[in-house]
Amino acid sequence: MTDQNTSGATPDNADGVTQGETDNSFAGGVGSDLPGGEQPENLQTRSDEAATQAGPDATSADDAGTEHPDTKLAAERLSDLQRIQAEYVNYRNRVERDRAREKEATIGSVVESLIPVLDDIELARQHGDLTEGPMSKIADKIESTLNRFGVARFGEVDEAFDPSVHEALMHVEAEAPEGVDGTFVVQVLQPGYKVGERVVRPARVSVAG
Predict the structure, then answer these.
(1) What does each C-alpha distance from 124 to 120, 130, 152, 171 come to in angstroms?
(2) Membrane-spanning residues where (predicted)?
(3) Is residue 139 part of a domain?
């Protein structure tokens, strides 16, 4: 009986190693092949931690390369507002310019109808008829009222002749004043009138040069 039991146990312990020793040896062999002798579950934990730490940075890098839809929409709206504002400024300037021209044209038409009266006032003043008296006061009031509306009288002796504001009625021989080159005004026969930059009537002059 003793010999049979001994021979029956021989296959399981033929090499003299038990099942528990085999399992421990396998586990130790796997761990010994990893860096620092760490176990696989420890490496997996570290890998998960590293992925968690790198996650936000990787997401930020992806977002940095992609423009947010709201940013593009805001830029388009800003461009539209700037364009509309520029159009409004141009429109307002154009309206103001047109109004100024209409005002000058209206005043100019009134001045044009008063030019004969203004010429008579100028001749009377040159002859000394408006030095005093009620007519002198009336003439002064008429001229001061026109000045308030931007009406200006122009035309001076010895100034350079400018065909845009002067009308030459006579040409005479005369020595040019110092500092004046070319054609110049010798005598103002009738003064000119303008409203702003609009010439109602050019100054009628005699010229030389």
Answers:
(1) 6, 6, 19, 26
(2) none
(3) yes
